[in-house]
Amino acid sequence: MRHLPILTMGANGAVPKARSEGRGPTIWLAGTPDELEPLMSLGIAGIVTNTVVLNQYAKEYGSVIDLIKAYLDITDKPVVMEIDGHTVEELLAVGKVFSDLSDQIILKIPCTFNALKAFSVLKAEGVETFCTTVFSLTQAAAVAQAGVDHILPFCDPVKAVGGDPTQLIRECAQMFSGWEHRPFIMAALVRSVETAHAAFRDGADELVTMSTVYREMMDSPLTEQWNKTFLDEWVDMHENGLLEGVPVTLH
Question: Residue 134 phi/psi, 5° resolution?
């Protein structure tokens, strides 16, 4: 995974594999280990952290490192660790602490000028990276050229100031469409099913959201109506002896 050469990783990672199988975009989750553990076997691509949730959740676990170990204990899928720092050297030193914990760790770095150099160094080392806090097409182009593997346009924060939450996703999809080894576009800070829908529609390769929104993505009044219709028919068949030999349980 992370320590393979970039081209090999790009050919075999979660998103390319999903594309080759025709499975569409991947879904990543944020939340506590307890919240996420029962969901990780449902096709979730991995876990994504940021410093806000790390600061919140680490208080329960004693330290950020112990929290990350708790994530690693609940899944064999990637765990994206957001790091920060004031210099390139600090970013690289902090990143090494977490990448040394497990090959499952992927590093996520906020979009800054220092991040450009860090992405370049990490690419040369074969380390998979995410760039967060991306709010413009020029930022996306710069970090892509520096070698980042996943670009995270923020969605609902743009909506909160009156903007189109998925415009940057559309623009990135168009800009990168001719690239042979383009970065993946991950819709980030997705706080509603409406925004998730728009992100998928507009070309996001990946999406990260909280477990609550993920559960709501399965809701629809029409689905509920038709599921009840079909279940009622199923129960009727059972009560009329038409499902004899079938292990039916009525609740």
Answer: -90, 125
For 90-127, b/e burial (b = at least 16 CB within 10 A) is ebbebbeebbeebebbbbbbbbbebbbbbbebbbeeeb
What are the start-end ranges of the H helices in 75-153?
A: 88-99, 113-124, 137-146
Flag the least confident range among 18-27, 85-94, 180-189, 230-239.
Answer: 18-27
Report pLDDT for 16: 56
Phi and psi based region of residue 63 (left: phi greater than 0; alpha: psi -120 to 50; beta: remaining): beta
User: What are the tens digits of pLDDT across the range 213-246?
Assistant: 999 999 999 999 999 999 999 999 999 999 999 9
What is the C-alpha to C-alpha distance for residues 112 and 118, in angstroms, rounded to an integer? 10
- 205 with 26: CB under 8 angstroms? yes
pTM as predicted? 0.89
Q: Answer for the pair 2, 123: CB distance below 8 angstroms, yes or no.
A: no
Q: Could you tell me where the beta strands, DSSP code E, fall in 73-226?
A: 79-82, 105-110, 129-134, 150-153, 184-190, 206-210
Residue 250 φ/ψ region, left for φ over 0, alpha for ψ in the -120 to 50 degree band, beta for the rest: beta
